[in-house]
């Protein structure tokens, strides 16, 4: 699996630049994007806020700490050797702290991990260089070894589990649990990284404000670790948090004062551009916080939430500022960028989704989006884009792709879509010509009754036709399914699985999700409509764990077990798991699709020896 000679070729990435500190007396903000997120593509949050604040005249230092965490800290021989020593000590002195199955895996793989740690710079180089990345027999073992190293890191700090897009724990249930974790470097893999970053850079810059963007639950522990450290070691700096994840826990923020006493001074809910600029103005000239929309802060010894107000229209905002991005450091062979086309979901009727009832949807004009693609290509050589908008109507895609073709741009795109009849053969052909290489289709179910309950606005016949049209156009179809929607019977779920089995010619890859009940969804607000007879809540300061019982259909545990078993069965072909499975990440698959096309990628031959697969499914 591990080559003996590292690749010494140099990357041809364009260099970014890092912002210098502001002049003395001028408030300066450090905007941090914390782990864990994919170290493949910069996230939009910090570039969007950076552009807005700079346009308002504020000094900003953006920091993609997620990228630095993986490439300059975790996946380095120094850190990996320390984690190996820590795991070895744990196995010898406290073996019962690991489940028996994991102890056995650790003993079996320890030698492999030592070898991989020794070659970690080579493994990263494989992903950064086109000649090795596009060689399956080089890239698949490199990806496998990196995931093995992250498995080792997980066991060293168990029950924390970490990978490129995942970090969760099973032992943080209280304020005390979080405080203990944030001060223990043996349990918290982020703490030594933050201490070094703070001492080497943050303290030298002396920012007036540090903003931490928390877009996902997988970033929460790292963000809280940094926030607490900042409060302790840089007490004059205002610490503010924001990001999509805060909307899911906003009630927790307004209920628990300890967040504002021990971790951050304020939190921004909803869009952050105007609130953050107003907060910077407050730090510069004083004044109260009560006028800042969507801000949570301490007032009269308790958290106070200011009413939000509608954010600026997307078309009025400056384009994201990527000028500080170190493109060559990402674990990808060429610059890869995110695109934002909308705010909200144009459909807004899926009963399981937290965006149910979306009242305000804001679209960028297609010519503005294509102009941004053109700009990023000219400045940084970007031609591959991931589009993470929840759902865009077919008519929008036709207009956008027509503009791409008119400008003769050579780009590739990875997108989300809902398989509705509006995706005609003509439209999908135009989308493929414009560079759409992979579509993540929200299929969800292939049973008509369940689809009606979900209010997807799709039919089985339309889904079948759209998938066939997309395949015929040369687009890779990645289908997303949900098993165990409330009232769904085992037989109805098997109908969905039969649809997947019988349409493998037009479903290139897939994912099966067991249904999860979330607050702020139509299902949660109307449980009787879905035969949910009881919802139990395990409340913590950080999240509420929701469990439920139904009067009809599969129980949640049955649905989860069915999803696991079906996935294992469907992934195993005559020769083993498919090529896309071992690439692991859809962004890597996207680059292969752009280079080789859907047909050649699907039939890609590769050496399976040494590819043991990931350890997904083991829960702490």
Proportion of strand residues: 15-25%
Low-confidence stretches: 1-23, 615-620
Strand order of the largest sheet: 2-1-5-6-7-8-9
The oligomerization state is: single chain
Structural class label: alpha/beta
Q: Give the beta-strand count.
A: 19
Helical content band: 40-55%
Describe the sheet with the most strands: 7 strands, mixed
Please render the helix and strand layout as text.
Layout: E1 28-33, H1 45-55, E2 59-64, H2 65-74, H3 77-93, H4 100-118, H5 120-128, H6 130-133, H7 136-156, E3 161-163, E4 166-168, H8 175-182, H9 191-205, E5 209-213, H10 220-233, E6 238-242, H11 244-248, H12 250-255, H13 258-263, E7 266-268, H14 273-285, E8 295-299, E9 302-305, E10 336-339, E11 342-343, E12 362-363, H15 366-380, E13 384-387, H16 394-407, E14 412-417, H17 425-434, E15 436-444, H18 448-454, H19 460-473, E16 476-483, H20 490-502, E17 509-514, H21 522-525, E18 532-539, E19 544-550, H22 556-571, H23 579-583, H24 586-602
Parallel strand pairs: 1-2, 1-5, 5-6, 6-7, 10-13, 13-14, 14-15, 15-16, 16-17
Antiparallel strand pairs: 3-4, 7-8, 8-9, 11-12, 18-19
How would you summarize this macromolecular structure in one to three sentences?
This protein is an alpha/beta fold. 44% of the residues lie in helices and 15% in strands. Strand 3 (161-163) and strand 4 (166-168) form a beta hairpin.
Description:
With 620 residues, the protein is of the alpha/beta class. The protein contains 24 helices and 19 strands. Helix 3 (77-93) packs across helix 7, helix 15 (366-380) packs across helix 16 (394-407) and helix 17 (425-434) crosses helix 19 (460-473).
